[in-house]
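Structure first, sequence second, as always.
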């Protein structure tokens, strides 16, 4: 069942010089999840933050820490991100041929497991992990950078995955990440998404605008 729309601001668009204060501000403005984009300069062409930073910012919000790992290899870092305070760890299906094992590893640590697909990846990659994931993340841009344009072809993918979730009978978040604005937010929720990641659209204008930014995304 499609649940209430939740907004997951990506801190990639926050002011990194004051990350703790930024997280406290976006929490107070109504964020549901805090989305943390982890990039390695290998799986994606950008480098961001590691587990030490996740640990340092964790005390600034009690909201769900939704950690999106765009790294390969990934297994060696899962425990560090779990120990740092992640509530959900999402990995990319393309990042390792053994993503089933990686999902098992995340679950064994007692936290939620997510799987993400790049825009070019087919929904069939999810077929054999529907029984173990808590979140499916559809990338609506090619991962690596904030501020890119939403790729429209992903709407059909969202609808297909919504159907797969209904068929599974399981409680799985359907998250979309990349190019989310008040306009595209409407399209993805109509297609069946229920967790919207938004970097630029959440943090634009500075802290005085965060509550209004989030309100507009809820539609
Ligand atoms: C892209 C990241 C996204 C990104 C979204 O690789 O996974 O979370 O920060 O940024 P916007 O909302 O600006 O497209
Ligand atoms: Zn992300």
């Amino acid at each position: 069942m499609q649940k209430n729309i939740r907004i997951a601001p990506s801190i990639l668009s926050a002011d990194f010089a004051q990350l703790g204060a930024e997280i406290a501000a976006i929490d107070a403005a109504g964020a549901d999840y805090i989305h943390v984009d982890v990039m390695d300069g290998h799986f994606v062409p950008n480098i961001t933050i590691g587990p030490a930073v996740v640990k340092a910012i964790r005390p600034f919000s009690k909201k769900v820490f939704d950690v999106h790992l765009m790294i390969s290899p990934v297994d060696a870092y899962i425990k560090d991100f779990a120990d740092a305070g992640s509530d959900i760890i999402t990995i990319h299906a393309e990042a390792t041929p053994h993503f089933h094992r990686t999902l098992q590893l995340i679950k064994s640590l007692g936290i939620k497991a997510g799987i993400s697909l790049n825009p070019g990846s087919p929904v069939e990659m999810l077929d054999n992990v529907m029984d173990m994931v808590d979140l499916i993340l559809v990338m609506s841009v090619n991962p690596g950078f904030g501020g890119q344009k939403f790729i429209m072809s992903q709407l059909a993918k969202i609808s297909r995955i919504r159907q797969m979730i209904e068929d599974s009978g399981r409680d799985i978040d359907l998250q979309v990440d990349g190019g989310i604005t008040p306009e595209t937010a409407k399209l993805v929720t109509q297609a069946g998404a229920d967790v919207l990641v938004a970097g630029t659209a959440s943090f634009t204008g500075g802290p005085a605008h965060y509550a209004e930014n989030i309100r507009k995304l809820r539609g």
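Margin note: The chain has a mean pLDDT of 98.
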